[in-house]
Amino acid sequence: MFVLDTNVLMHDPTAIFRFEEHDVFIPMIVLEELDAGKKGLSEAARNVRQVSRFLDELMQGATKTEIDRGLPLPNAISSGNNGKQRPSGRLFFQTQTLDSALPELPGHGADNAILGQALALKRAHTDAEITLVSKDINLRIKAAILGVHAEDYFSDQTIEDADLLYTGMQALAADFWEANGKDMQSWKDHARTFYRLTGPAVREWHPNLFVYEDSPSGVEAIVRSVKGDEAVLELLHDYRSERHAVWGITARNREQNFALNLLMDPEVDFVTVLGPAGTGKTLLTLAAGLAQTLDNRRFGEIIMTRVTIPLGEDIGFLPGTEEEKMEPWMGALMDNLEVLTQSQEGGNWARAATNDLLRSRIKIRSLNFMRGRTFLNRYIILDEAQNLTPKQMKALVTRAGPGTKLVCLGNIAQIDTPYLTETSSGLTFVVNRFRGWQHSGHLTLVRGERSRLADFASESL
Fold this sequence. Notes:
461 residues, Rossmann fold, 3 domains, six-stranded mixed beta sheet, 18% strand
């Protein structure tokens, strides 16, 4: 039996349905805390209202006797269980006063009350394993001290470990061509070179995966399609040479070259770029956006947005319009625009004119006003995407209309949102869910290119 803390339901309203065949117990103090947290427009308040609706649906027509026996929980049909319905547990509420002696803990806080309920259940049901589920580390510590088994809530995690998140690229083995290149076919189509390979190694590939030979003049290609043992590769454009510069920017390493290939590809609608500070995520994305907006006229304008979470203390309300309020948060955009315009000839006057032109085609928008919008032929850049929940990320990605490209940038090692971790972040969620879709691509940048000071700081601090 799992005893749920309030913060679990505030974090994931569907948590009561995530425990498969096990029983779920909700103490009365949790219902009180949910009632206190239902007001407002925050994500937590919306989740609380959704939990209340779920509980209300489960209790429709239930008698007091049925509630005491536990309400059966509906469970999704599992595809891994041959389409059969998995066994589901029951939902119990605290219907009577349980004797919870907590002599070791002073005070009458909500955490102590929940802990007391878990302890009383453990004494009353000696044949069952009682587990307290909470995202509050201190409550889990107190539970461990009192001998109550406590766990974090793991069901919202997309993957078990952030290290398992795929990087979007794969090195070819030394004997790859001998094992897989026997019946290789090659052809050209409008300056694009394709190869068709057949072999056992290609089974694990998926569309838009980058493959490369780890040598100075080795092959660098992108997987275009995979069918069983057969895959089609396309050789990449080399954006490391000045001849193929994107808005004056050239790739400084292999990963940046891969990223520019994704960002400039008209067939890829959704791109995620991960990487620590200084790897060039924003600069490459902005350069590719400007090249496709002003040079190729593929997009009408660039829309830049980000999550507004302060690094230090909040400085209060900001005056002005939506764009002016977002301006202080867009330091990264301004810094990168300076880099992109500093090579302009014609002195300060020409540089100022260029800045005005660029600013007229780059719109800064707040995430708070995205709901209900549809963006047509826009190049959307979402910075600091690691601070979004999966639900917020879904709300934003579904804003994209025809001809729109969405680029999500972030570093999952720098999460500022409470209760979000590397494995439950919205950015990790979309990287994992979009993997294998032929119109999406992902890449993890590794090498810092900002400065030797920034590189040393990233490694040593």
